[in-house]
Write a structure and sequence with these properties.
The chain has 129 residues and is an all-alpha fold. It has helices at residues 2-49, 52-85, 92-123. It is built from 3 helices and no strands.
Amino acid sequence: MDTVILNKLNAYRRLFIRKDLIELSQWMESIDDINLEIEQFKLVEKQLIKSDTLVTDLVGLRRKNTLVMGSFCNYELDLKKEYEFGKREYDLSRAKEHEKKRYQYLQLIQEFKILKNKIHTELMKYKRS
């Protein structure tokens, strides 16, 4: 009987970790997309806007984006190891770890939205002649 319960608990643990991995892969894909947009915005800034503060903001966000991606890659490795070999129970502390990563991701998204708004505001200043 204990073996059945342990197997069921392990199956749920693996299911929750798998859910976290799926969500993490979506975040990482979104971060990759942000990276591409930052590169495009850098070109627009260089060719059209020419603002030192915008360059600084773009470089800063690019740096933060890279750091978050690195952190998520490490987290992904940890989750994959835990999925395959771990025995740690999926408890409240593990759920909080994942929530911290979600908060980190949401902060990055929010900063990117603010930067996009700045760029769009600058672009609205230009009129076709």
